[in-house]
Amino acid sequence: ASSVEVRNVDKFYGPFQALKNVSLSIPAGKVTCLIGPSGSGKSTLLRCMNFLEEYDRGEIRIDGKLIGYDAPGRKMSARNLRQMRRSIGMVFQQFNLWPHMTAQENVAEGLVRVRGMSKPEAMARAATELGKVGLADKLGNYPSRLSGGQQQRVAIARAVAMEPKLMLFDEPTSALDPELVGEVLNVMKALAAAGMTMVVVTHEMGFAAHVADQVAFLEKGELVAVDSPAGIFHAP
Ligand code: ADP
Ligand code: ADP
């Protein structure tokens, strides 16, 4: 499992400063939840961790290695960035499955393309991963024939199949009907229990309070509090 060190990070969208001197240590094997009002910079901070967004100042290190830059102001090659991203999985609010592929093919695709597995080997592995998220009986379903909760579990299985050392979740349950949220949170809990380093942007305060090891609260681009769930939610 990876650790992440965010140090004095600034991020601008044009003249607008979305992150203001953010520093945060994300310990290996723990769950960190990013919470705060809409527009406070949670998603931006998460996306900086795999360099889907470029940060403008400061450092983000994964296991001590700077992501996105070789040195301050000098961007890393696309090849090196791809290499670093191989150990980082990401799950989005919209499930982003390939609509023309079955659940099993969605999971197998990356194993073939990135890992160079044979198709049969990748399909077998995909079946195993889908079994772990409770979808052993949905291998042949296309995304349009799955509920939102099932689609999101396929997306998680697809990310986990790549054996990441860090998983980033951007509001993974926000697009789901309320009755489907629990099945996705349960899969995430199992992943946490297995020792995955997880960073989760969420509005699910129950999850943050009961599953997170650490909660970081953002407001207007600033990290205003970092504490245990007890410290954040039961403060006087
Ligand atoms: P949150 O995830 O907390 O809702 P975001 O990180 O999505 O917040 O956005 C933080 C702020 O940055 C918001 O004011 C948002 O409008 C702005 N923002 C996000 N993405 C962009 C972008 N691509 N261009 C300009 N402004 C953006
Ligand atoms: P979310 O709340 O899930 O972050 P948003 O509607 O805020 O969704 O953002 C959707 C997309 O639009 C993201 O890629 C984000 O970076 C971009 N975005 C958000 N705010 C702005 C903005 N003010 N200007 C330009 N792009 C934005």
Automatic annotation (TrEMBL):
Residues 4-236 form the ABC transporter domain. One of its GO terms (cellular component) is plasma membrane. The keyword Magnesium does not apply. Pfam families: ABC_tran. Signal peptide: none annotated. InterPro entries: AAA+_ATPase, ABC_ATPase_HisP-typ, ABC_transporter-like_ATP-bd, ABC_transporter-like_CS, MetN_ABC_transporter-like, P-loop_NTPase. It is a peripheral membrane protein. Keywords: Amino-acid transport, ATP-binding, Cell membrane, Membrane, Nucleotide-binding, Transport. The keyword Nucleotide-binding applies. GO terms for molecular function: ABC-type amino acid transporter activity; ATP binding; ATP hydrolysis activity. SMART domains: AAA (SM00382). CDD domains: ABC_HisP_GlnQ. It is found in: Cell membrane. Belongs to the ABC transporter superfamily. This is Amino acid ABC transporter ATP-binding protein, PAAT family (TC 3.A.1.3.-). It comes from Paracoccus sulfuroxidans. The lineage of its organism: Bacteria, Pseudomonadati, Pseudomonadota, Alphaproteobacteria, Rhodobacterales.
